[in-house]
Automatic annotation (TrEMBL):
Species in which this protein is naturally found: Eruca vesicaria subsp. sativa (Garden rocket)
EC number of this enzyme: 3.2.1.4
InterPro entries: 6-hairpin_glycosidase_sf (IPR008928), 6hp_glycosidase-like_sf (IPR012341), Glyco_hydro_9 (IPR001701), Glyco_hydro_9_His_AS (IPR018221)
Protein's name according to its UniProt entry: Endoglucanase
List of catalytic residues: H409
Biological processes annotated in GO: cell wall organization; cellulose catabolic process
Length: 492
């Protein structure tokens, strides 16, 4: 359906409108990284700045006689889901690799600390390859039946594993991508660690490719992750994603051949709106397009073509399918949380704009052409919306600005800190706190919540998880986006 003249007019006006509030992107970047300290599991270091947190999950992995202490809780619960955790690590690494040049030395160092907390743990999840890969720690349903702090969990901390030849291509492919991307991020500052990450990435990808199938197809994988993080999108995107990052980390033509050979045979099926922990296709296209800009590798042409096609969907005046916007200009996703999509797609938009600028090109959409700054304005609109330029006049980043959600859907944030109240409220008693109208006593600084609905409305109660629950995989791509605008604060 062709967009109406009114739609086009509104869209153009939204891009031309100046920022209503001058934003401190550097402060937002600092806080977006600090957030990860609030999501830590394990024994906390002396340098811990999110001081209301305490040690947790110190016996994780015990049921399988292995050490699975550490890592991140993915959201407002206390389970460690390895699939989204790996995507979080990949995006923190990509933020460092391609947007680190826009960060201050302090921000870059802090981002690497956040990344290493994830990769140290991911190394544990693949420590028993080629025979076993660890899927998750914690039983999702019992955990979700309780409202309690991570410091005093009494729900089962069962660790789940998949043994060869059980399929785990999506999980293993994402872990391989994370370790490969992180190997690039640490290459200069910690070359020994970088080599370890790369070697494990190669080994993990071998498992992913050799034992094809979704990890939810394995009994233990299904029991652990579904219905929360079983991949509805299949496993083929993670195989291409892992290969793309290994190609970039190693320069090996073996991974180039893999990308060329398998794209068509995998029968790629696109959802332009979807880039996140489950669907990687448009991310792969943007990542691989770098080689087309630099080297014009003919076999990779379909990747760049699809990346360009995705970028064209951002502009209503172009032909073909289009991404949706809320009335106030936020990229809109009809499924899931709005800000996850907005943050992840903004990352890709800025990355592609960088390619175009570096090689003095424009975005070509049929007979229409767009300058790189046209893409950057769309990304900036998303960031400014998140930070407060929205109909609710609310920052969706906790702790940024004066007005932000005070009742976020997060167990540790909503229950008095163990440093203040030593006695655990208990599994069921915690629900009284959950249902109360009191603001959360602990500020999870930097947490970006799920965000508004498609009409820009927002219900800021912790009982409404879709609106108020933060996730690591929303913050991770936003790190790179905020880094760009912290270095270019006057872009308009």
């Amino acid at each position: 359906m062709k967009p109406s003249i009114l739609t086009l007019t509104v869209f153009v006006l939204l891009l031309l409108l100046p920022t209503v509030i001058p934003h401190d992107y550097s402060d937002a970047l600092h806080k977006s990284i600090l957030f990860f300290e609030g999501q830590r599991s394990g024994r906390l270091p002396r340098q811990q700045r999110m001081s209301w947190r305490g040690d947790s999950g110190l016996k994780d992995g015990e049921n399988l006689n292995t050490d699975l202490v550490g890592g991140y809780h993915d959201a407002g619960d206390n389970v460690k889901f390895h699939f989204p955790m790996a995507f979080t690590a990949t995006m923190l690494a990509w933020s460092s690799v391609d947007f680190g040049c826009y960060m201050s030395e302090k921000h870059h160092k802090d981002n690497l600390v956040a990344l290493k907390w994830a990769t140290n743990y991911l190394l544990k999840t693949v420590s028993q390859l080629p025979h076993r890969i660890f899927v998750q720690v914690g039983e999702a349903q019992p955990d979700h039946d309780c409202w309690e702090r991570p410091e005093d969990m009494d729900t089962p901390r069962t660790a789940f594993a998949i043994d060869a030849p059980g399929p785990a291509s999506d999980l293993a492919g994402e872990i391989a991508a994370a370790l490969a991307a992180a190997s690039i991020a640490f290459k200069q500052s910690n070359p020994t660690y970088s080599r370890l990450l790369l070697n494990k990435a190669i080994q993990t990808f071998q498992y992913a490719d050799m034992h094809r199938g979704s990890y939810a197809d394995s009994p233990n994988g299904h029991k652990a992750a579904c219905p929360f993080y079983c991949s509805a999108n299949g496993y083929k995107d993670e195989l291409l994603w892992g290969a793309a990052w290994l190609r970039r980390a190693t320069g090996s033509d073996d991974y180039l051949e893999y990308l060329v050979k398998n794209r068509e045979s995998f029968g790629v099926d696109y959802n332009y709106m979807d880039f996140g922990w489950d669907s990687k296709f448009v991310g792969i296209d943007v990542l691989v397009a770098k080689e087309m800009f630099e080297k014009n590798v003919s076999g990779l042409t379909p990747y760049k073509d699809m990346a360009e096609k995705m970028m064209c969907t951002l502009f209503p005046e172009t032909a073909g399918p289009h991404l949706n916007y809320t009335p106030a200009g936020l990229l809109s996703n009809t499924v899931g949380c709005q800000l996850q999509s907005a943050a992840a797609l903004s990352f890709l938009i800025l990355k592609y704009a960088d390619y175009l600028s570096k090689f003095s090109q424009q975005l070509t959409c049929g007979n229409l052409k767009f300058q790189p700054d046209s893409l950057r304005r769309i990304a900036k609109r998303q960031v400014d919306y998140i930070l407060g330029d929205n109909p609710m006049h609310l920052s969706y980043m906790v702790g940024y600005g004066d007005q932000y959600p005070r009742q976020i859907h997060h167990r540790g944030s909503s229950i008095p800190s163990i440093k203040v109240q030593r006695t655990a409220p208990g599994c069921l008693q915690g629900w009284d706190i959950f249902h109360s109208d009191k603001p959360n006593p602990n500020i999870l600084v930097g947490a970006v919540v799920g965000g508004p609905n498609v009409d820009d409305s927002f219900i800021g109660k912790r009982t409404n998880a879709t609106d108020t629950e933060p996730t690591t995989y929303t913050n991770a791509p936003l790190v790179g986006v905020l880094a760009y605008f912290s270095s270019n604060p006057n872009f308009h």
